[in-house]
Structure formats: C-alpha cells, structure tokens
Amino acid sequence: MHLDIVEGKNRANGDGSESPEEMMQRLAQEDNQPEGDVISEIDRLISRNEATHQDLDDDNLSSPDGRKKHKGKVTKEEIQAEIMNGIQGIGEYIMKSTEAIVKAHNSQLAVPATEIWDVILALNLNPDMEMIAYRFLINNSVEVEALLGCPLEKRKDYLMRILPR
Fold first, then answer.
1. What are the residue ranges spanned by the domains of the chain?
2. What is the phi-psi region of residue 49: left when phi exceeds 0, alpha when psi lies from -120 to 50, beta otherwise?
3. Tens of pLDDT, residues 31-47
C-alpha cells in the first residue's frame, strides 16, 4: 500500500490539491510560457478557488501596492531627542524622590538617644517602665516630638497614655 501526502487547499476532499512534484512541474511550465498568458493564469487561479471574478477587475490585475502607512526612517537626531527626554524624565523622578526623602527625614525630630534617656529619667518612672518608654520613644520620633512639646508637669501623664500596654 502506498500513501500519498496531499498538500494545498482542500486537502480533505482532494479538490485543488497539489503535490510537491506537481507544483514543480506547474512552475516549470509557467516559466516556459510567454508573459502575456494572463487568461490561462486567471483560469488556473479560479479553478483552484484562489481568485474570484470580483477580484479580477482592472485595478486588481497587478499586485497590491504598499499603500499602508509605514513609519519613515527615524533619524539619529530623533533617537537622541527621545533618549534625552527619557533621561530627563528619570532625572526629574530622582529629584522628586530625593525631595520626598529629605522632607521625610527633616520631619523626623533629630533628638539624640541620650537626650531621650535624660527626659525619661527626669519623669521619675519605675525602672521597668523606663526601658519600655525608652524603646518606644527611640522607634517613634513623632511621639518624642509630641512629648517634648508637652509642658513639663504633663509629660509623665502623656507618656503613660501613649505607651503600649
């Protein structure tokens, strides 16, 4: 038993199918024909369902021209301008983030740990509460600022209210 590989359109029913050998023979015959044999080419395309009568009006006899809009060649100056815009955008982003970091850093109260300890000692807390208050205030600069903003006689009461239980 011999199996043939069927290639081309309509392989399921064999209509218009063409084996590689047949394709080579057809192409060889087409090369030998004069260039003015348009009618036979049209007949062949129609028989293989590759063309219809509507496709064969006078405008469509030649291959379609590339009327699609293609981007023109990009010049070196345009590429450089695009790169410069990108670099400027990155620079602006870095400046904004740096400003945000500086602003956040400046908003934190720069109180040395020794000064925080001195404030805690001045409040006369018990030794266990001193350590809890110190650890809490070292990690919460906003609370340090609030504590130092309180009048001296209210600081101990404020600290007791803000400490975690």
1. 1-63, 113-162
2. left
3. 666 655 667 777 777 76
